[in-house]
From TrEMBL:
Keywords: Aminotransferase, Pyridoxal phosphate, Transferase
Naturally occurring in which organism (per UniProt): Thioalbus denitrificans
CDD domains named among the record's database cross-references: AAT_like
GO molecular function annotation: pyridoxal phosphate binding; transaminase activity
GO process annotations (BP): amino acid metabolic process
Highest taxon in the source lineage: Bacteria
Cofactor(s) it depends on: pyridoxal 5'-phosphate
Name this protein carries in UniProt: Aminotransferase
Length: 394
């Protein structure tokens, strides 16, 4: 028998990826399943981005590149940070990786030691705690429920910080809740962090562009520029340009940390795919109107989904500020159903008995909720919510 490492035994497979795989399996077996589990836009990658990749292949741009990304893409990332976020970085402060997930992974590996603590507000993106565990450190979860808009308070943050805290993660707008912190809320969290110089701040801006609050996007560094020397900004092209399969993420931050992350990448995966880098550069430098088209569709679907969900007895859904997720509290539904004790069982029954795939809130550290992605057609959303309503009424 193979003896596995304690490291790998400390984590679980990504629940969102496994729900998506499960839905695909059932569908392949002939079952009628509507998938609202996947965390990716349903749009095709815009044409000009695909063309750039095709050109890269034709031009023979198919070899290793610099580990940290091509000079062209890094310049595009630098220009993007300046244009969209008012942030200035030198090339040695930028690392391009194979997806936002690898950016975070490299960061955790470069920063955390056993015994260190990483503060993660819940509901959280499923991979943060497990990547912290893979680094041997301890995830410290701050719960923020529906009643507080799924956002932590400065007092909660203050109470969670200890001398062992090395990392604080903030993701706004958030996967899974769609909640975005206002500039004032960010500034208040920033004030707490300024009192604790041992803490590095990671802001995951992956959903930056998928936002409809009316206010401009703001991250913690915009609200609290004094944190510049100990903040890393994580972003990528996956969600904004519908490029999840291309696997390009990027980070901007302190040169020492970025250099350490690059070293890890140089000994693990080397550069991200050269062709994908060409495509990502075209995405960042090209016409940005494709982003607005997708956001408009997401907002329309959001309005429909939230209204429909709130009309189902037992469901309470807060409107999202952005992203393509709704994260209703479904405790009322669970209470009313025989043989369904929690959100895990509800999600299981929904997929097997009702033909709708959603991700249980427990996966995001928020039992009693469920995540549904509205990155799918209105038709499918309408049908899926109908199935959910009928199942809930049983
Ligand atoms: N951060 C958040 C909050 C996400 O939801 C995701 C994807 O689901 C990522 C990062 C990573 O994106 P990718 O690795 O596909 O670029």
């Amino acid at each position: 028998d193979v003896q596995l490492s304690t490291r790998v035994q400390s984590i679980k497979p990504s629940p969102t990826l496994s729900i998506t795989a499960r839905a695909a399996e059932l569908r392949a077996a002939g079952k009628d399943i509507i998938g609202l589990g996947a965390g990716e836009p349903d749009f095709d990658t815009p044409e000009h981005i695909k063309e750039a990749a095709i050109k890269a292949i034709r031009d023979g741009f198919t070899k290793y590149t610099a580990v940290d990304g091509t000079a062209g893409l890094k310049q595009a990332v630098i220009a993007k940070f300046e244009r969209d976020n008012g942030l200035n970085y030198a090339p040695n402060q930028i690392l391009v990786s194979s997806g936002g997930k690898q950016s975070f992974y490299n960061m955790a590996q470069a920063l955390l030691n056993p015994g260190d603590q990483a503060i993660i507000p819940a509901p959280y993106w499923v991979s943060y705690p497990d990547m912290v565990l893979l680094a041997g450190a301890e995830p410290v979860i701050i719960p923020a429920g529906l009643e507080q808009g799924f956002k932590i308070t400065p007092a909660q943050l203050e109470a969670a910080i200890t001398p062992a805290t090395r990392l604080f993660v903030i993701n706004s707008p958030s996967n899974p809740t769609g909640a975005a912190y206002s500039r004032g809320e960010m500034a208040a969290l920033g004030e707490v962090l300024l009192r604790h110089p041992q803490v590095l701040v990671a802001t995951d801006d992956m959903y930056e562009h998928i936002l409809w609050t009316g206010a401009p996007f703001v991250n913690i560094l915009n609200a609290c520029p004094e944190l510049y020397d100990r903040t890393i900004v994580l972003n990528g092209v996956s969600k904004a340009y519908s490029m999840t399969g291309w696997r390009i993420g990027y980070a901007g931050g302190p040169a020492k940390l970025i250099g350490a992350m690059k070293k890890i990448q140089s000994q693990s995966t080397s550069n991200p795919a050269s062709i994908s880098q060409a495509a990502a550069q075209a995405a960042l430098e090209g016409d940005q109107s494709c982003v607005g088209v997708m956001v408009k569709a997401f907002k329309e679907r959001h309005d429909f989904v939230v209204e429909t969900l709130n009309a189902i007895p037992g469901v309470r859904c807060r409107p999202s500020d952005g992203t393509f997720y709704a994260f209703p509290n479904v405790e009322g539904v669970i209470e009313g159903l025989d043989g369904v004790e929690d959100d895990l069982e509800l999600a299981e029954r929904l997929i097997t008995d009702a033909g709708v795939a959603m991700v249980p809130g427990t996966a995001f550290g928020a039992p009693g909720c469920i995540r549904l992605s509205f990155a799918t057609s209105m038709e499918k959303l309408d049908a899926a919510l109908g199935r959910f309503r009928d199942f809930a009424a049983r």
